[in-house]
Records
---
Amino acid sequence: MNTTESALGRLGELAIEVPSWAYGNSGTRFKVFGTPGTPRTVQEKIADAAKVHELTGLAPTVALHIPWDKVDDYAALREYAAGLGVGLGTINSNTFQDDEYKFGSLTSSNESVRRRAIDHHLECIDIMHATGSKDLKIWLADGTNYPGQDDIRGRQDRLAESLQEIYAGLGDEQRLVLEYKFFEPAFYHTDVPDWGTSYAQTLALGEKAFVCLDTGHHAPGTNIEFIVMQLLRLGKLGSFDFNSRFYADDDLIVGAADPFQLFRIMHEVIRGGGFGKSSGKESGVALMLDQCHNLEEKIPGQIRSVLNVQEMTARALLVDTAALSEAQRAGDVLAANGIFNDAFYTDVRPLLAEWRESRGLPADPMAAYKASGYQKKINEDRAGGQQAGWGA
Ligand code: PSV
Ligand code: MN
């Protein structure tokens, strides 16, 4: 086995979680476009996600968003998903769409609003027991728009208290991941703006609490792979929300805007023990997509996304780490940079096509989807009813 083959051998460990909301309609605050074939129910979203997994072998689980994906019987939903060959993954809470949360949720100074937000999370944990989900993902829209609008320290203290109560409700195998975002919908301050705040809050909670890094939630120019390295070093990187951005939180296809950044991130993930299995144990870092397909078709948009992650993971696996360390130790700046870039510039697409075929998958999943007739079928079958939308 040559070095390329043995490095790429680890590719089988790659598993990417897809978000149910990527299959629904989405848009901007200006317009949400409807599209033929869009799911009307969570079952139809799961069926679309299962198609992505069937053609790529990369997306074995689907994340749900509550209440968007609320059903009466979660055990039945789990069985339905299993029947299609996928599992139910992360449960995302939602405290950003009810009028009550206008001034905050887990940080609110209004005790009944804060109670409502905590109870919503406890309900999410109950759902996780029925779905078999491991992670509760919390992203808060909490923040203020104007200096002086509220007591930012008091809000931080209430956040800590609320999180403690939610954390206490977790089962032994369950985890809480706290996502940070530096702006939007609040524009002056947000209550969990950065990895430092998420780290401090999750550290105070305990070993079942981790940070979620959404690649679209940083100021332009931020060195995201540095944050990845640091959180792995501290043992607090729980999950990713992958997407790409040109300007703000654009939620575009991961790897579309800056494949080199995705490569650099995957390099740190692999190096820091955040990839796949080491000594038979899962790394504990969940790779999830958090994207919206406003203009492009949604299912091929998701297929392209998981393939992009696979491609950059393959390139990152090809970094000659021994040669890189040697060049680094020797202080040979250009040699080290050259070794790093050699891996990035390697065209792994033919190898990946072979890799897929050897596993009974289509060599070209995008083409296989086009040829499958699935889109035509759902366009016809899903006439009528209320199409699922991002909800805003
Ligand atoms: C917020 O921008 C966010 O990244 C959170 O993960 C939400 O749950 C998700 O987007 C909704 O699309
Ligand atoms: Mn996110």
---
Amino acid sequence: MKGLMMDIPLTVTSIMHHAERFSGKTEIVSVSNDNPRHKYNYKEAFRRVRCLANAFQGWKLIQGDRVATLAWNDHRHLETYYATSCAGYVCHTINPRLFPEQIIYIINHAADSYVFLDPDFLSLIEDVSDQCAHVRGWIVMTSSELMPKTNMSNVICYETLIEENSDEFFWPELDENSACALCYTSGTTGNPKGVLYSHRSTVLHTYGAMMPDALNVSSSDVVLPIVPMFHVNAWGTPYCCPAAGAKMVMPGNKMGDGPTLAALINEEKVTTSAGVPTVWLNLLNHLRASGETVDSLKRVTVGGSACPLSIMEEFDSYGVDTRHAWGMTEMSPLGTSNPTGAHREQYSPDAFSAIRTNVGRPIYGVDVKIVDDQGLELPWDGDAFGALKVRGPWICSGYYEVANSEAHSEDGWFETGDVATIDAQGFVAITDRTKDVIKSGGEWISSIEVENCATGHPQVAEAAVIGRPHPKWGERPLLIVVTLGEGEELPVGELKSYFEGKIAKWWIPDDVKFVAEIPHTATGKIQKTKLRDIFKDYVFPE
Ligand code: AMP
């Protein structure tokens, strides 16, 4: 028997309509290239979105056409998100930190018809535009007075586009399974692969992300998404905030700038924020040096790479609860979240330190399992390491225009490429990327856990662990360290003894190398392939 409920399509358009009707006066604040504090509200934002949608109609785009963005988190980027998706096109967000060849590759692979770009990225585009055959126009996201000079053809000013188009527009009725956004993963090997989000997956992820044990977004929140809108839709915050009616504060190109972040938090009374560990290091360094506090800030969600305990404990001293989360581009991105900080009184201090660094439990909507090399499911005992697989309605079922994806199996599970343990309560601990695991004497060493421990050392700014060949054990861990004192090297023996009692004895790295800088990918993750290349001739001392 079928249920007797209405079949209303789940679309991004419905989020826009809801915010416009019920949170029209809620503020959106952003740092943009022409205004250090641009302020308006959802009503005005979505009025301008209708102007943009009219512009698209004038360009004779066809439903499903890809329109790209190369932009920071600000109000214009938010407008472009909604105008593209709600008018039936696909908002393709491009990570400006990718190499120019990768940017050319993905613009051509996606066959983008128009590209919206922040003036900061004009010189990048000037170098590649003649290799992007499908692109019919480049829209510079600024005012007519500040339009930069360029020799490129088909360059359009964003604000002129808004001024010249009517703010009356009839939104099309969209199929909930049609595509609304596209984001390419920046893997360390091979060409980037496109993840094509649907309206339905985006709306379901929005419900999931807003939940109290996930990002926990409500109408009483002021949200500062520091995670970029060019990477997995800023973890869904551009949809959660309008859906919940939360005030949004966007940092523009200042997302790595501690003083600006502190000023935004204090002036706009930010209650919650989300970002990768490095941005928090910038904020905490600034707070430490200036003596400022962040009194309105209640929670920060940290993910994208493992969050060291030292960051969480420093946030504690400012009264901020750190919530560790895990996910990936293919998962829209939220997979798991660890909200134990909300009831830390249930744990002894040691037990709390141990439990808060794992990435928490799957949020409702995401199913997980760990498997061995033969694909057999492993127990949830907190000890067994295995390849982490996931499934759910906001997880991609394949890659855009890729015939065979090895990561997708016929039984409907997606192989994340991460290695994890899961304990009896369902808490997931990410120990490595599959390609980065270190096998010593047939047993796995968690490089993430060793790195976390190393960053707790007061003189260590950043640490990475890679496996290097060893005549007896097959592989042993080599620790690579950037120290806080520039170029300073610490006694290796002393650093090694720092690990004692903190991790298993046989996990302690055999040797330490000091470097000025650790290489990172375009999304800020440690580039272990490059490190392995740099240390390819390294031999452990006898
Ligand atoms: P991306 O698709 O670029 O967002 O990268 C996703 C990958 O980042 C995951 O598969 C993990 O390897 C890593 N990652 C994300 N969040 C965490 C976390 N909290 N701890 C450890 N690794 C993480």
